[in-house]
């Protein structure tokens, strides 16, 4: 894309939200197999590394910590910061606040849900190309917003200092300029939250 700022990805971080209870799925989604070689967690992390984003934070609950034991070497090799959300019942905004306790100030931060493992480097570059300071970027397909969302550093700092965790991220973001970024791949809209949804994309029930 002519004139695009190619430094956004190199100066960004990603917070992968994986601290939910996975009640409908029945097992932690972060350990679900994406294919015979990698889990959802490994697939997502590899995608961000491939795109050039090397600052990766994974937010998990206590059950998730146990589920990551077999992925420990991979996480260490990729220099992933694993952050414990000790209060997953406080839900998504609190998980994001927990994950955003980053040691450095980044130009932008991706918010990535564990239940969409189809994220692709091309999507991330499109979001980075559309990025503007002070705003947030949402991938769009056929008029619907998807994942991941790219937040500017200002929005990140405002979330970090927000006094309450009882907030909906979508409502919180209404105070900021929104950039809709067209993406041709309909998989930006996917949320895999149940065995039925898993079978739809992977052809078998997760065990």
At a glance:
This protein is of the alpha/beta class.
Describe this entry's structure for a reader.
The protein has helices at 40-51, 62-67, 72-77, 91-99, 121-130, 153-161, 169-173, 195-202, and strands at residues 12-18, 55-60, 81-84, 108-113, 136-141, 144-145, 149-152, 178-182. With 207 residues, it is α/β, with parallel strands linked by helices. The chain has a single domain, classed as Spore Coat Polysaccharide Biosynthesis Protein SpsA, Chain A. Strands 1, 2, 3, 4, 5, 6, 7 and 8 form an 8-stranded mixed beta sheet that branches. α1 links the parallel β1 (12-18) and β2. The model has no long low-confidence stretch (mean pLDDT 89).
Shape: globular
Unreliable residue runs: none
Instruction: Supply the CATH class.
Output: Alpha Beta
Oligomer: single chain
Total number of domains: 1
Helix % is 25-40%
Strand content: 15-25%
Radius of gyration: 16 Å
Overall pLDDT score:
89
**In the CATH classification, which architecture applies?**
Alpha-Beta Complex
What do we call the CATH topology?
Spore Coat Polysaccharide Biosynthesis Protein SpsA, Chain A
The major β-sheet equals: 8 strands, mixed
Counted beta strands? 8
Class from secondary-structure proportions: alpha/beta
CATH superfamily: Spore Coat Polysaccharide Biosynthesis Protein SpsA, Chain A
Number of helical elements: 8
Q: Determine the N-to-C terminus distance.
A: 42 Å
- Series of secondary-structure elements, N-terminal to C-terminal: EHEHHEHEHEEEHHEH
């Amino acid at each position: 894309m002519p004139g695009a700022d190619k430094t956004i990805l190199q100066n960004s971080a990603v917070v992968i939200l994986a601290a939910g209870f996975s009640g409908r799925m029945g097992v932690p989604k972060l350990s679900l197999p994406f294919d015979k070689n990698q889990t959802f967690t490994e697939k997502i992390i590899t995608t961000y590394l491939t795109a050039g984003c090397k600052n990766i934070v994974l937010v998990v609950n206590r059950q998730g910590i146990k589920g990551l034991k077999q992925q420990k070497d991979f996480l260490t090799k990729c220099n992933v910061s694993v952050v414990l959300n000790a209060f997953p019942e406080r839900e998504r905004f609190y998980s994001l606040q927990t994950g955003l306790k980053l040691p450095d100030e980044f130009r932008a931060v991706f918010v990535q849900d564990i239940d969409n493992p189809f994220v692709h480097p091309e999507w991330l570059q499109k979001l980075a190309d559309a990025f503007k300071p002070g705003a947030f970027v949402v991938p769009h397909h056929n008029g619907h917003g998807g994942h991941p969302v790219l937040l500017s550093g200002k929005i990140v700092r405002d979330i970090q200092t927000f006094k309450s965790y009882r907030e909906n991220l979508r409502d919180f973001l209404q105070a900021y300029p929104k950039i809709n970024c067209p993406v041709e791949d309909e998989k930006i809209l996917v949320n895999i939250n149940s065995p039925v949804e898993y079978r739809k994309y992977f052809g078998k029930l997760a065990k």
